[in-house]
């Protein structure tokens, strides 16, 4: 697909993976996919990247069932972390200087941190976190954000 021209109004949509349940998107992941649909529809000539080891094929199937042309979807199925989601996506979108990234609101600070670290330009779309999952996911995310920040500091010290 042709990269954006001039004004950057055409952007790829990157949807980050999350937990599956019985091979299908769990509640948080389904919220990401639902939140991504308006952005995907506003960018009809741009690629859609689904990223996550194990989750990406289920995400692709969900999007196709919900009207997204399969030819637009790029499946990145190697990533096992937020950082790998972004690094592997960069390999796929090397000609695209900016992306729309879709994740849940609890996850956006960590995505922004890794994007900043790598120098990637991202516009965030924050999906709602299912109410029942908030305590677990927000608690987990506090530790994950701290871990990511320490990894980034260590990488910068080493280089």
Automatic annotation (TrEMBL):
One of its GO terms (biological process) is Gram-negative-bacterium-type cell wall biogenesis. Residues 13-135 form the DUF218 domain. GO terms for cellular component: plasma membrane. Pfam families: DUF218. InterPro entries: Cell_Envelope_Assoc, DUF218, Rossmann-like_a/b/a_fold. This is YdcF family protein.
């Amino acid at each position: 697909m042709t990269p954006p021209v001039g004004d950057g109004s055409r952007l790829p949509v990157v949807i980050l993976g999350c937990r599956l349940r019985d091979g299908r998107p769990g509640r948080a992941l389904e919220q990401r996919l639902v939140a991504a649909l308006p952005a995907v529809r506003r960018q009809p000539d741009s690629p859609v990247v689904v990223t996550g080891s194990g989750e990406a094929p289920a995400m692709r199937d969900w999007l196709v069932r919900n009207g997204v042309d399969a030819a637009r979807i790029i499946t990145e199925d190697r990533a096992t972390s937020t950082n790998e989601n972004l690094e592997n996506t960069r390999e796929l979108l090397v000609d695209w200087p900016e992306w729309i990234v879709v994740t849940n609101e609890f996850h956006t600070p960590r995505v922004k941190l890794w994007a900043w670290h790598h120098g990637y330009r991202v516009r965030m779309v924050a999906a709602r976190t299912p109410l029942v999952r908030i305590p677990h996911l927000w608690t987990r995310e506090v530790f994950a954000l701290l871990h990511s920040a320490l990894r980034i500091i260590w990488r910068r010290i080493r280089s």
